[in-house]
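Whether sequence alone determines local backbone shape is best considered at the level of individual chains. When preparing material for the folding task, we compiled for one chain both its residues and its backbone structure tokens. No coordinates are needed to read the tokens, only the vocabulary itself. For completeness, the protein is quoted in full, as a sequence line and a line of structure tokens:
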Amino acid sequence: MTSSPTVDVSGVRAGELLCATADVDPDVFFPPLDAPRNWDRVAKRLCGACPARISCLRTALERGEAHGVWGGLNGKERSRFDGREIPSEVALRRTLGMRKGR
């Protein structure tokens, strides 16, 4: 396993983050640069079940995280927000295809 950034999401306890559990390899979220094309499938599936998904995505956008999957979006997908105001929770839910309360 390679060293990965520490996942620290504003306003969320580590125990609420599915990516912070002992049985999840951080490399799923932060792969090597030569990772295959669909490297993010497993990470996105885990993010889809995480109750902190919106907070995680918002944190990544606020910090300008370029690498890894945060809140269900990889760096390329998050780059469309570069230089823009951070969207509202409603807009982020829409972007992620989430319904209210999910």
Observations:
- The chain is about 30% helix and 0% strand.
